[in-house]
């Protein structure tokens, strides 16, 4: 009942909603104008729709009329019944289509129910099948998983089995390797043997990495034994091969040595050609051995043994032959040390190159034994040459030996082939050190005997006769030849003076215009410039330095050069003093000056510092401390800090001073002293009377200033040496000396120096000194009360007259200015500040 009430309420609510569906005021589903227009069009179309095809053709109402006409309606009840029938007929007529559709739906429902039943049965069967499928699938998956697990376990077991098998191979192969090594037909050069070595190396490496295994130590010992056996087989084979090579070569070499020269190339070809033929037998084996050095220490030991065997055989083959060859060379070149050293070194260079090449025919990796072996061969030359070198006395030979060893051997051969000639270079360097030591020792003796203690012959000190003779020869050649004068560079060193002079004179020719003597001298240069005309100690010093410069180390050369220049300066000074005593002081000074100029100019090209540091002890404090000790004798045994003896020990220690000695500066210093002395002596020679007067006057004036009180003032004019007549005589004597000796002085300067600029530099201070002396006399005369008559008697020249006198008397003013042609660097010039002498 309640359900019907709810249904009626729902129907009413639905009807109400349907009524309000298209209400004009508040519709439930409002439509737009376009939608309303579409509905109207659809309504119009529906009105004109024909009847359905299912309806029978004809007029239903007419049929109904026909049916009703047949029946007569007599009562109201009949009418209502008829009306009801008609109404029902009309209604049924309208429901027929729906009824048919209903019947069709019912049939479809029945069919659907049947299909549904069939589907339900099918689903039931499918569910059964699904359950069965799931069961089978689960069982299959379980089986598959079990199979997968079994396969994984199988693979793991196989892998474990393979791993175990692989690991066991390093142990199980021992018996096989022992059997193969014991095979008497096994050859160490075969691939089978190399495979055995590979297997042994792999097994030992694996066992060494896994010593934690129980049997690893035992198997390691067994494999080591197998490896030692294999290594011993290799060693025996290599040893037999090398010994066979030596035995094959040695008889042939012995027979050849009896028939030919020991250094013959054919003989020494046997040492390499036949021996090298055996290299192919062991080359591959040694190469394989060298590739395994990192695998096991046994291989390194074997390779070292192979090197030892190789060098032992080579020593037996080569040592005696090389020694005999060098002895034969020393016998052949007895007395010719340079040729002996050059040929011996060339022979060893050839040997070292061949031995180096031979070694790498057998081996591929270097070894220090090669250098030791080559050094042993080279020491044969050292042992023979060293006794010869230490008895060589000639500096030329020692210097030449140094040049051969340094330039030809070390700088040429060794630098071009450093590896093959490394051992040779060490031996040559050691030999060169011995030669240099001998050279330095002999140089010291040579400097002492032939330079410092040189005893000049009369011809060495025949100055200026030698220079005048050379000039006369040059002038005679100049008159005979018309070609331009040119002095060729001299290359002589320690040759005789006569031969050098003759060579230089023969190369000298005169000027074409037949001019004056001084022009020819100026172009030719001083005869002292010729190497043969140099003072022998100077020439020997320069030649010695030039040879030592290329042979010894720089520090050694610096010390020797300082000593040589110092001794040379002393020797020049001694010779100059001798010339001064035998001839004139001017000759001695010019001789010393010229050779100092030569010395300074010749040492300039040496690219080395001539400065040497010397240590000396300064005992100045010792003297002061000793004097203080004597003053404090009462405190000798004092126990305090003022003990006199303690102060003496502390304050009296001599100090060490470092002195720097520059040889070039010493030459310049001595040159300056010589030039100043020459200028002073030349000035005194030309103006000696004036200088004596000035000196006496200065002494007189000095004594006049020291007179006692009460004595009358002394007058210079009253002194005998200062009378107008004496002063006039002194002035005339000075003028006469200038006229007669100035040109001679300049002639000597030209003869020795042959450099116009140097001559002018020397002449300028001499000229200034003379002018200064005249000016000093003028000042003394004016200040000491001489009358005009006295001055007339004195006849003192004016400054202009002095200049005219010097100009007319000067040899330089009488000849045209000619530029000196300096054909050797010995015509050095001296700067003016060094040459200025003292002026009054």
TrEMBL record:
<dbReference type="GO" id="GO:0000139">
    <property type="term" value="C:Golgi membrane"/>
</dbReference>
<dbReference type="GO" id="GO:0005801">
    <property type="term" value="C:cis-Golgi network"/>
</dbReference>
<keyword id="KW-0472">Membrane</keyword>
<dbReference type="Pfam" id="PF04136">
    <property type="entry name" value="COG3_N"/>
</dbReference>
<dbReference type="GO" id="GO:0006891">
    <property type="term" value="P:intra-Golgi vesicle-mediated transport"/>
</dbReference>
<dbReference type="GO" id="GO:0017119">
    <property type="term" value="C:Golgi transport complex"/>
</dbReference>
<dbReference type="Pfam" id="PF20671">
    <property type="entry name" value="COG3_C"/>
</dbReference>
<feature type="domain" description="Conserved oligomeric Golgi complex subunit 3 N-terminal">
    <location>
        <begin position="101"/>
        <end position="242"/>
    </location>
</feature>
<comment type="similarity">
    <text>Belongs to the COG3 family.</text>
</comment>
<keyword id="KW-0653">Protein transport</keyword>
<dbReference type="InterPro" id="IPR048320">
    <property type="entry name" value="COG3_N"/>
</dbReference>
<dbReference type="GO" id="GO:0006886">
    <property type="term" value="P:intracellular protein transport"/>
</dbReference>
<dbReference type="InterPro" id="IPR007265">
    <property type="entry name" value="COG_su3"/>
</dbReference>
<protein>
    <recommendedName>
        <fullName>Conserved oligomeric Golgi complex subunit 3</fullName>
    </recommendedName>
</protein>
<keyword id="KW-0813">Transport</keyword>
<feature type="compositionally biased region" description="Acidic residues">
    <location>
        <begin position="831"/>
        <end position="840"/>
    </location>
</feature>
<keyword id="KW-0333">Golgi apparatus</keyword>
<dbReference type="InterPro" id="IPR048685">
    <property type="entry name" value="COG3_C"/>
</dbReference>
<dbReference type="GO" id="GO:0007030">
    <property type="term" value="P:Golgi organization"/>
</dbReference>
<feature type="domain" description="Conserved oligomeric Golgi complex subunit 3 C-terminal">
    <location>
        <begin position="268"/>
        <end position="622"/>
    </location>
</feature>
<feature type="region of interest" description="Disordered">
    <location>
        <begin position="816"/>
        <end position="840"/>
    </location>
</feature>
């Amino acid at each position: 009942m309640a359900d019907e009430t709810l249904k009626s309420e729902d129907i009413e609510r639905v009807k109400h909603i349907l009524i309000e569906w298209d209400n004009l005021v508040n519709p439930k589903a409002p439509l737009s104008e376009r939608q309303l227009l579409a509905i109207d069009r659809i309504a119009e179309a529906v009105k004109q729709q024909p009847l359905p095809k299912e309806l029978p053709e004809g007029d239903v109402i007419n049929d109904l009329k026909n049916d009703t006409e047949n029946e007569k309606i007599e009562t109201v009840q009949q009418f209502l019944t008829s009306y009801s029938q008609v109404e029902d007929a009309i209604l049924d007529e309208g429901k027929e289509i729906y009824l048919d559709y209903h019947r069709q739906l019912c049939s479809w429902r029945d069919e659907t129910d049947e299909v549904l039943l069939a589907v339900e049965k099918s689903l039931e069967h499918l569910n059964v099948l699904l359950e069965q499928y799931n069961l089978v699938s689960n069982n299959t998956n379980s089986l598959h998983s079990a199979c997968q697990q079994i396969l994984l376990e199988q693979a793991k077991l196989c892998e474990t089995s393979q791993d175990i098998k692989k690991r066991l191979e390093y142990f199980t192969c021992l018996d096989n390797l022992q059997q193969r090594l014991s095979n008497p037909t096994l050859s160490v050069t075969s691939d089978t043997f190399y495979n055995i070595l590979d297997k042994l190396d792999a097994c030992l490496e694996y066992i060494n990495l896994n010593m934690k295994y129980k049997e690893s130590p035992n198997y390691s010992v067994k494999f080591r034994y197998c490896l030692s056996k294999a290594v011993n087989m290799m060693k025996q084979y290599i040893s037999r091969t090398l010994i066979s090579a030596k035995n094959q070569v040695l008889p042939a070499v012995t027979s050849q040595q009896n028939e030919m020269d020991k250094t013959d190339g054919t003989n020494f070809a046997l040492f390499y050609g036949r021996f090298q033929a055996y290299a192919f037998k062991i080359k591959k084996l040694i190469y394989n051995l060298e590739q395994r050095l990192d695998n096991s220490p046994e291989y390194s030991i074997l390779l070292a043994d192979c090197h030892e065997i190789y060098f032992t055989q080579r020593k037996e083959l080569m040592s005696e032959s090389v020694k005999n060859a060098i002895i034969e060379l020393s016998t052949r070149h007895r007395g010719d040390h340079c040729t002996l050293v050059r040929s011996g070194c060339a022979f060893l260079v050839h040997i070292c190159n061949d031995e180096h090449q031979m070694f790498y025919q057998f081996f591929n990796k270097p070894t220090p034994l090669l250098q030791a072996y080559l050094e042993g061969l080279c020491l044969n030359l050292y042992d023979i040459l060293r006794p010869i070198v230490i008895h060589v006395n000639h500096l030329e030979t020692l210097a030449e030996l140094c040049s051969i060893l340094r330039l030809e051997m070390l700088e040429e051969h060794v630098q071009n082939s450093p590896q093959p000639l490394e051992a040779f270079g060490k031996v040559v360097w050691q030999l060169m050190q011995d030669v240099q030591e001998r050279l330095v020792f002999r140089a010291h003796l040579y400097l002492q005997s032939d330079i410092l203690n040189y005893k000049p012959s009369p011809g060495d000190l025949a100055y200026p006769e030698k220079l005048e003779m050379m000039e006369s020869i040059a002038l005679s050649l100049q008159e005979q030849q018309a070609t331009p004068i040119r002095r060729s560079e001299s290359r002589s060193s320690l040759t005789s003076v006569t031969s050098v002079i003759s060579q230089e004179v023969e190369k000298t020719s005169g000027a074409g215009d037949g001019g004056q003597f001084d022009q020819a001298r100026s172009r030719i240069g001083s005869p002292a410039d010729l190497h043969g005309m140099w003072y022998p100690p100077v020439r020997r010093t320069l030649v010695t330095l030039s040879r030592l410069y290329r042979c010894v180390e720089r520090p050694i050369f610096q010390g020797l050069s300082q000593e040589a220049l110092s001794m040379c300066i002393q020797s020049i000074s001694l010779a100059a003093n001798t010339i001064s005593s035998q001839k004139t002081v001017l000759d001695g000074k010019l001789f010393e000056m010229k050779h100092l100029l030569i010395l300074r100019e010749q040492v300039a090209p040496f690219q080395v510092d001539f400065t040497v540091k010397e240590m000396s002890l300064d005992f100045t404090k010792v003297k002061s401390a000793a004097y203080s000790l004597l003053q404090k004798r009462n405190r000798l045994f004092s126990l305090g800090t003022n003990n006199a003896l303690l102060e003496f020990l502390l304050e009296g220690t001599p100090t060490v001073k470092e002195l720097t000695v520059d040889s070039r500066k010493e030459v310049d210093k001595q040159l300056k002293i010589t030039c100043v002395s020459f200028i002073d002596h030349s000035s005194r020679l030309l103006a000696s009377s004036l200088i004596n007067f000035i000196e006496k006057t200065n002494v007189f004036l000095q004594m006049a200033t020291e007179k006692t009180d009460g004595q009358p003032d002394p007058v210079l004019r009253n002194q005998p040496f200062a009378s107008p007549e004496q002063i006039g005589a002194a002035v005339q004597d000075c003028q006469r000396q200038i006229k007669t000796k100035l040109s001679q002085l300049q002639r000597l300067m030209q003869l020795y120096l042959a450099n116009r600029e140097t001559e002018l530099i020397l002449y300028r201070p001499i000229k200034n000194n003379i002018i200064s002396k005249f000016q000093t006399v003028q000042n003394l005369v004016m200040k000491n009360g001489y009358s005009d008559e006295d001055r007339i008697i004195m006849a003192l020249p004016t400054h202009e007259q002095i200049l005219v006198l010097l100009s007319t008397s000067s040899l330089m003013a009488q000849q045209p200015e000619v530029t000196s042609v300096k054909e050797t660097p010995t015509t050095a010039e001296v700067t003016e500040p060094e040459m200025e002498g003292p002026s009054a």
